[in-house]
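Milestone 3.1: sequence recovery, worked example.
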């Protein structure tokens, strides 16, 4: 019985530490707004999405799961609320040097 309690306690502590480590770089300090347009890079089947701001800086979008919805927004000026990630992530992060962002929300301006 003590062994089972020990294992459960260990697993709960380990899972809390793992969850905290996975959230690094996602705090409110790294949240910002970007006004720009969605751009698709590459060629099928190897494409990735970026956001080009009004100054011409290009940000890679991560995770890829948000790309399908963003692709539909090409051609619109959009205000994005994003999390600026500390490190490049995904394929776009390898090529687009403005940084990598995770979109939280967006609003079409025109």
């Amino acid at each position: 019985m003590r062994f089972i309690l020990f294992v459960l306690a260990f697993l709960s502590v380990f899972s809390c530490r793992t969850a905290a480590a996975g959230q690094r770089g996602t705090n409110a300090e790294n949240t910002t707004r970007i006004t720009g347009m969605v751009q698709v890079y590459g060629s099928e089947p190897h494409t990735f999405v970026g956001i080009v701001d009004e100054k011409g800086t290009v940000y890679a979008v991560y995770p890829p799961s948000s790309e399908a919805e963003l692709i539909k927004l090409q051609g619109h000026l959009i205000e994005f609320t994003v999390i600026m990630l500390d490190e490049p992530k995904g394929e776009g992060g390898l090529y687009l040097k403005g940084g990598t962002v995770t979109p939280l929300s967006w609003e079409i301006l025109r």
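The first strand starts at residue 31 and ends at 43. Residues 28-108 form a domain with the OB fold (Dihydrolipoamide Acetyltransferase, E2P) fold (CATH 2.40.50).
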